[in-house]
Write a structure and sequence with these properties.
138 residues, Immunoglobulin-like, 5-stranded antiparallel sheet, 0% helix
């Protein structure tokens, strides 16, 4: 699993986006049922998502709110979630936005390598947001 914040300035009331890529590394055993979850800090608002899956895999195409989905990964299957949110306008300048993703295969299946089943990213606000309107001269 990989989790990254997509490029862009992070400011109060502005957008923030994440991309989560989940892969079944087995070319023999599918994962027909797995629990995917993305947890966003309380400073994320208006969360929405899209998801695209490879042939033999499935995930919800879109939705609102932080995803907590039952998904399916075929052999060598992959899915890519794009999660969009708005940064809370009341966020403090010293606060960071934290996003975490995890996936766990459902029984009777097991995952021999669980160390790659979760990821977290912490994003501080963009610096110098007080001057972001562009009216100041350097």
């Amino acid at each position: 699993m990989s989790l990254q914040r997509l490029p862009g300035e992070i400011v109060p009331a502005g957008p923030i986006s994440y991309q989560v890529v989940v892969q079944n590394l087995s070319n023999v055993v599918p994962a027909p049922s797995a629990a995917f979850q993305f947890t966003a800090s309380v400073r994320h608002t208006s969360i929405s998502l899209t998801c695209a899956a490879s042939v033999g895999s499935s995930c919800p195409a879109s939705g609102n709110g932080a995803p907590a989905d039952n998904v399916s990964l075929g052999t060598n299957g992959q899915m890519t979630y794009t999660i969009n949110a708005i940064v809370d306008s009341a966020i403090g300048s010293a606060e960071s936005l934290i996003g975490s993703a995890s996936i766990n295969v459902s029984t009777p299946y097991s995952d021999p390598v669980t160390s790659n089943n979760s990821a977290t990213v912490s994003t501080p606000l963009s610096s110098d947001i007080i001057f972001r309107d562009g009216f100041e001269t350097p």
